[in-house]
TrEMBL record, chain A:
Binds 2 [4Fe-4S] clusters. In this family the first cluster has a non-standard and varying [4Fe-4S] binding motif CX(2)CX(2)CX(4-5)CP. Its cofactor is [4Fe-4S] cluster. Keywords: 4Fe-4S, Electron transport, Iron, Iron-sulfur, Metal-binding, Oxidoreductase, Transport. Residues 15-183 form the Pyruvate flavodoxin/ferredoxin oxidoreductase pyrimidine binding domain. This is Indolepyruvate oxidoreductase subunit IorA. Catalyzes the ferredoxin-dependent oxidative decarboxylation of arylpyruvates. It comes from Teretinema zuelzerae. SUPFAM superfamilies: Thiamin diphosphate-binding fold (THDP-binding) (SSF52518). It is an enzyme of class 1 (oxidoreductase).
Automatic annotation (TrEMBL), chain B:
Residues 11-185 form the Pyruvate/ketoisovalerate oxidoreductase catalytic domain. One of its GO terms (molecular function) is oxidoreductase activity, acting on the aldehyde or oxo group of donors. Keywords: Oxidoreductase. This is Indolepyruvate oxidoreductase subunit beta. It comes from the Bacteria. Signal peptide: none annotated.
Length: 554, 188
């Protein structure tokens, strides 16, 4: 055994290596990014198993499925909203008889630290009827990977491992094994188990339903689902899930004092789904109320309300004992337990007015120059028409920071790739000048198909690809294709080469770039403008790498 | 024993380097550490806060409870106040004096100082000047660790070892500069 200091994400990655993973795939997304970063580093610099960034979560998921079909263990990593992109292969894969263990690792972001929604991945597990594992600390994140692979192979189902921001991005000492399990041998699955032709899929669906009984049995005996019964306490029991367990533990000393001599309520911790229904029934037999403390949406609370007899009251996020939105924390749990708020240094302190400090584009960022030119063009186009005639749709990435003052350059941020589709819709609806603004990596993730639609319908709109050469927001992972390939891809999709413009995003070119925007906006068909300049952070990292390589070759 | 620290600053200022140095020192002393970090969108020029928990036994929560922090250690004055509800009434606040102004409506800095001084235990450290004296403006965070060190639950020896381990592999010259910054911070 060794001791290492690891992020939750890194602990999970190392767990995968030690459990004999053969292939790892993913698309960067906070808070999941560091999992694949760790594995890619292992692959590229130390000859570890294959690990690759992919164009999007769907292609990543499909690659992991291929590894599994070949008999080997694979993981695919993404953030919660990434599972929406991979939902098609994910849902269908639940009907395949998984061969080599497959873990879909999804990192949820309650409180939306870096996300557009709070979406709780446990609903997807329930939807697909696949098991879900939920570690509560770095050590569990490391150890659960092997357990998840084992279950995946034993029952031939894909499994989900749900992480959350506060675990993914928290560091602690992890005790890890000295050696790794050997990888599985190369051996194909049976084609009948993997071809979802309707006749075969119907059989597989029946098999999946049959597995549910076995899965429920498994959940009852899974040792990390723990039940501590206190038959003496009749009014209340507690169910925890995810980090709810930690926040209860944080308050436990004071709560035990508060509970007095009749003692603490019975406590069930749910570490994995499907929901251990037998355990909850033992818990509920004689209590009046069950408090559910869970990280994310009121998932267990709803399930409990569905299976328990009406005399048991279930309380939690739906009933207002805990807030419906946001990340869970020790204070919220403290209040739900009926403990008084603690004194703080803020009591009686006269706080001066503090200004908000939202995240912003780096000083000198090329997106700033692109947006300044776009703002100028938009202002002139609207003035020319004498009314609001422009729509600027954008999507997810660093350039989303163009939404805030002083730029206020964009009007929509919905999901990866939505900019192009929404600009098309706005043009169809009647806006004369529709702009879709998208980053280089996002364009490859889910912008290409939007271009296909616009080409097919000859929509008068202008797509602006902000090409900074890197996936900047998540920490500079590579864009799948280099800049010079974007042009060819756009032409290849059928965009008129006369209306593909490649220009530099430079501060001294704002006036001239605005003129290009105006020219292409007037074109009554599809135009694509690629704005090129390397991300500052990517530039710094590249220079550092080059100088290190230069030093080494001396 | 548990000792909880809120680290505050602006994305890109090096808040996490402070966390790394203190965490390493605590581990050299055989203590348990959990440290929650800031990644992604919030890193870019926005206010950032990291939770660091040190104990001589197990630590349950990655987050420090409100009213639970023994110290706020901040890279700049406005951010030092933003997370005050985490600080215990008798907790200590240590901040660099120099404001980080990347917004148009940064408050009057004297107002911030005045508010900070009304706290029972607070220190405003002229960290930039001391870092410059040590030989590198980037050593501001080391000055701050030095200024906080008498209250931290880590030994002087472990802290020195941690600074040494952190910088020795990068550039041996940085070891001396940062050791000096640490010492200047201690005396500040």
């Amino acid at each position: 055994m060794k001791e290492l200091v690891l992020l939750g994400d890194e602990a999970l990655a190392l767990g995968a290596l030690h459990a004999g993973v053969s292939g790892s795939y993913g698309y960067p997304g906070t808070p999941s990014t560091e999992i694949l970063e760790y594995l890619v580093d292992e692959f590229e610099t130390r000859g570890g198993p294959v690990a690759r960034w992919c164009a999007n979560e769907k292609t990543a998921y499909e690659s992991a499925l291929g590894v599994s079909f070949a008999g080997k263990r694979s993981i695919v990593t993404m953030k919660h909203v990434g599972l929406n992109v991979a939902a098609d292969p994910f849902m269908n894969s639940s009907l395949c008889q998984i061969k080599g263990g497959l873990i879909c690792v999804v990192a949820d972001d309650p409180s939306m630290h870096s996300s557009q929604g709070e979406q709780d991945t446990r609903y997807y597990a329930d939807f697909a009827m696949v098991p879900l594992f939920e570690p509560v600390n770095q050590q569990e994140a490391y150890e659960m990977v092997a357990e998840a692979f084992e279950l995946s192979e034993r029952l031939a189902v894909p499994v989900i491992m749900r992480m959350v921001t506060r675990l993914a991005h928290s560091r602690a000492v992890v005790h890890v094994a000295d050696t790794a399990r050997a990888q599985n041998a190369l051996e194909k699955g049976s084609p009948a188990d993997w071809m979802l032709l309707p006749a075969l899929a119907r059989k597989n669906y029946a098999k999946m339903l049959d597995k549910q009984t076995t899965l429920r049995e498994w959940a009852k005996d899974y040792p990390r689902n723990t039940l501590a019964l206190n038959p003496a306490r009749k009014d209340l029991a507690i169910v925890t899930s995810g980090l709810g367990k930690n926040y209860l533990a944080e308050n436990m000393a004071e709560y035990a004092d508060l509970c007095g001599k009749e003692g603490l309520p019975s406590i069930l911790h749910v570490a994995a789904l499907p929901f251990p229904a037998d355990l909850i029934r033992s818990l509920a037999e004689k209590v009046e109320t069950i408090l559910v403390i869970e990280e994310g949406m009121p998932f267990l609370e709803r399930q409990l309300a569905g299976i328990l007899p009406g005399r048991v009251k279930v309380i939690g996020k739906l009933t207002g004992s805990l807030p419906r939105t946001g990340e869970l924390n020790p204070e919220l749990v403290r209040a739900a337990l009926g403990l008084p708020a603690r004194a703080t240094a803020l009591d009686g302190f006269k706080m001066p007015a503090l200004s908000a400090r939202p995240p912003q584009l780096c000083k000198g960022c090329p997106h700033h120059d692109s947006y300044s030119a776009l703002n100028l063009a938009v202002e002139r186009l609207n003035a020319k028409e004498g009314k609001v005639s422009t729509v600027v749709a954008a999507d997810i990435g660093c350039y989303a920071l163009g939404a805030v003052a002083p730029l206020k350059a964009i009007e929509t941020i919905v999901c990866m790739g939505a900019s192009i589709g929404m600009a098309r819709g706005a043009a169809d609806a009647g806006y004369k000048y529709a702009f879709g603004v998208i980053g280089d990596s996002t364009f490859l993730h889910s912008g290409l198909t939007g271009i296909v639609d616009a080409v097919a319908s000859k929509t008068p709109m202008t797509v602006i690809i902000l090409d900074n050469s890197i996936v900047a927001m998540t920490g500079c992972q590579p864009t799948m294709l280099p800049s010079n390939q974007l042009e060819k891809a756009v032409i290849g999709l059928g965009v008129d080469p006369a209306h593909l413009r490649v220009i530099e995003a430079k501060p001294n070119m704002i006036e001239q770039n605005a003129a290009v925007f105006m020219e292409e906006a007037e074109h009554r068909g599809l135009s694509v403008i690629i704005m090129v300049r390397e991300c500052l952070e990517a530039h710094r990292l590249r220079k550092k790498k080059e100088s290190a390589a230069g030093e080494a070759s001396k | 024993m548990t000792y909880d620290i809120i680290l505050a600053g602006v994305g890109g200022q090096g808040v996490l380097s402070i966390a790394t140095i203190i965490a390493r020192a605590a581990m050299i002393d055989g203590l348990t550490v959990r440290q929650s970090e800031v990644h992604g969108m919030s890193q870019r020029g926005g206010g950032v806060q990291a939770h660091m928990r040190i104990a001589d036994g197990p630590i349950s929560s990655d987050l420090i409870p409100t009213g639970g922090a023994d110290m706020i250690l901040a890279m700049e004055p406005m951010e030092s106040l933003r997370y005050l509800s985490w600080l215990k009434p008798e907790g200590i606040l240590v901040t660099a004096a120099e404001p980080f102004v990347n917004i148009p409506d940064y408050p009057e800095v004297e107002t911030l100082y005045a508010a900070i001084r009304t706290l029972k235990r607070s220190r405003i450290v002229a960290a930039e000047a001391l870092a410059r004296e040590a030989g590198n403006l980037k050593s501001v965070n080391m000055v701050l660790i030095g200024a906080a060190s008498s209250s931290l639950p880590v030994s002087e020896k472990a802290l020195a070892q941690s600074v040494h381990d952190t910088f020795a592999k990068k550039d041996p010259k940085l070891v001396d500069i940062n050791m000096k910054a640490l010492a200047l911070g201690e005396k500040a």
